[in-house]
DNA sequence: TTCGCAAGTCAATAGCTGTTGATTTAAATT
DNA sequence: AATTTAAATCAACAGCTATTGACTTGCGAA
């Protein structure tokens, strides 16, 4: 019987995972440029050198963080164009403990580090391939790309405003459900011209 | 007669202005963290030390750049809630040489550097005081704050998508005027629930 | 002309960053 | 038990950053 109370040591896959998890949390709160490898290593209780060793470098680590989180993708879940507005509105509601909340985290990580030459390039590819592509396809019809951009713009704008600019009164309606309903209406408007 | 072809030297207000202009252009293209004082000094053809001398430091320089650009403010121009959608749609059109284009630059500068502890704090204050405040007041009515946030979110989202994520097909409709009309419709939707 | 003060220059500082090499330690294999 | 192999540690590196102080230059006033 292997004890599960003792701390596992000399386990490369465990430390790799610990680094990845710590990096995720750090990149969620700070930008690529403002996260140091020493911060991540400290959180993961791991030597700094191991990061470059296991991941090849900061850039590769970031790539792994975002591409791990990319799937299950935000826009792979909704099945039809009709359920899109309600899905996106629910996505923004961000009830604590909600399953969807962790889907939103990839968004925040992307927004935080989008300005930063190295991280930006990675993020841009991800947005085009894994987000805008599927979303455009799902919407379809006339000007599907434009409408996909509109939806994504709203989502990103709310993310920037709420998480980065720290504007908290976006949910400041008495009834949070009402707020969600209004945003659902906005998404519907974007889809129907 | 003072020659205007000779380069003015030993002119403190001119070099201050040169630094400010160079800083504006740099912060427009790169984030606070990725712009070095040496870059700015190089563009302004000025010694690096003069920046800290004249502005007190990088942070103060950035504050001066954004607060100079803040007025004339984006949202001080439209007079009534009714003309807001058309105004915002025109703001996004970004026709080269347009007067409104330079109004949009403040937005880009803010979005670029929003994630960055020092610049972020400055920007957050600006958003609350100079943008969300006036806009909420202009909109008025029920849930004016929520609607102001919606409009700002759309504006920021489009800015992020277009300028930072470099998604260029936001204007890829055959007729750019048609694209503008659609966004105007989206803004109207945000105002009317 | 001379003096003084402001403008501009130069060099050096301390503090950070990611990355790498050599070294030690622990686990698994023979 | 001895040996090999991988994991973790440690220390140091070179490159960058903003900022500061001392120094030199030049213009304007006396």
UniProtKB/TrEMBL annotation, chains A, B:
SUPFAM superfamilies noted in UniProt: Homeodomain-like (SSF46689), Tetracyclin repressor-like, C-terminal domain (SSF48498)
Database matches in PROSITE patterns: HTH_TETR_2
Native organism taxonomy: Bacteria, Pseudomonadati, Pseudomonadota, Alphaproteobacteria, Sphingomonadales
Protein name: TetR family transcriptional regulator
Gene Ontology terms for molecular function: DNA-binding transcription factor activity; transcription cis-regulatory region binding
Every HTH tetR-type domain range: 13-73
Keywords recorded for this protein, A-Z: DNA-binding
Regions recorded as binding DNA: 36-55
InterPro entries cross-referenced by the UniProt entry: Homeodomain-like_sf, HTH-type_TetR-like_transc_reg, HTH_TetR, Tet_transcr_reg_TetR-rel_C_sf, TetR_C_16
